[in-house]
Amino acid sequence: MQHSSYLFTHAVTRQPGQSIAGGLRASDGADPDAAKFLKAHGDYVTALRATGAAVTVLPPLEAYPDSVFVEDPALCVMGKAIILRPGAASRFGERDAARDALVEVFGAENVIDLPAGGIVDGGDILVTKTEVLVGLSARTDQAGVDLLRPIVEGLGLSLRILNTPSHILHFKTGCAILDDETVFAVADLADCFEGYKVIVCPNGEEPAANLIRFNDKVFCADGFPKTHRILADAGYDLLLLDVREAAKVDGGLSCMSLRFSL
Ligand code: CIR
Questions:
Q1: Pair 85, 92: CB distance under 8 Å
Q2: Which of 84, 91, 250 to mutate for ligand 1's pocket (most ligand atoms within 8 Å of CB)?
C-alpha cells in the first residue's frame, strides 16, 4: 500500500461534548467553553475537507470528556486501525467507541486490538514515511510499545522508541511531521530526530508545535507569529486555526483527528 507521512484521503474526528470542561489538564485554568469549542471544531473539519479528504465526524461522547481528542485511542496506518490502550484511566473506555467507529470505516478485518499488558496513547506516536516513532511518556510505557512493535513491523514499518520529557504531555504535543524528511519540534525534543531535518519551534511558542501537515496544508494554531514566519519562509502553505478552547484541556491540532489513506 502507498504510504505517505502527509498525504491522506481520510480523517476521523469526534465533536466535543458539553462535558468538555471535565477533560484532563495538567494545570488549573479557565474551563473551555463548549459552544466555542464546537465552532472551532467545525472550522477544523471544514479545513480538513477543503484539502479533498473525506472526513467522518463522530457524535460527542458525554461520558468521556476528552473523547474529542480522537487521536489517542487508535493508530491508523497502512490500511489498518490499531486500537490502543489509553494511559489515562478516565480515557480507557474511549477505545471501545473508537473500535466501533473504525470498524465502520476500515472493516472489521482491518481493525487490530493492541493486546493487554501495557499502555499506549496515539498522541505519543509520530508516523513518518518509513517508521513509527514512539515517545515514552506518562501515557505510553515500554510494555505497551513492546506489544505494538510486532504489529507495526508486520505492516512493513520500523518502530523507534524515543523519550518524551516529563513536562510534555504527549510526544506529539512537542513535534510534528512537515514532509517526508522534515520535522518541526520544540527545542527539548529537537535532538532526537536522527535522519530528519529539524525546524526548531521558537522559544515561547511551544504550543505551536502541535501542528499537522495534512495534504497541501500545514494547519497551525493562530497567535504564534514567529512560527508562522519560519514555516512560510520554508515554503509551507499555512492555514491558521483557533485552538484556544482545546488548549485549555491540553489538546491541540493533531489530537483532534485520525488521519489516514484508504
Ligand atoms: C488528555 O490529557 O488526555 C487530554 N485532556 C488532552 C489530550 C491531548 N491529546 C494529544 O495530545 N494527543
A1: yes
A2: 250
Question: What are the tens digits of pLDDT across the range 51-79?
Answer: 999 999 999 999 999 999 999 999 999 99
Q: Which helix (H) or strand (E) holds 220?
A: strand 217-221
Task: Tell me, yes or no, whether 99 lies in a domain.
Answer: yes
Q: What is the pLDDT of residue 3?
A: 84
pTM of the model: 0.97
3-state DSSP assignment of residue 132:
strand
The DSSP H or E segment spanning 74 is: strand 74-77
Q: What is the mean pLDDT of residues 24-41?
A: 96
The label of the residue with cell 513518518 reads 128
Per the structure, the count of domains in the chain is 1
Q: What's the rounded Cα separation, in Å, for the pair 115 and 105?
A: 21
Share of the chain above pLDDT 90, in %: 98
**CATH code, domain with 224:** 3.75.10.10
**Would you say residue 1 lies in a domain?**
no
Active site residue 255: yes
Q: Is residue 38 part of a domain?
A: yes
Distance 136 CA to ligand 1 centre (A): 15
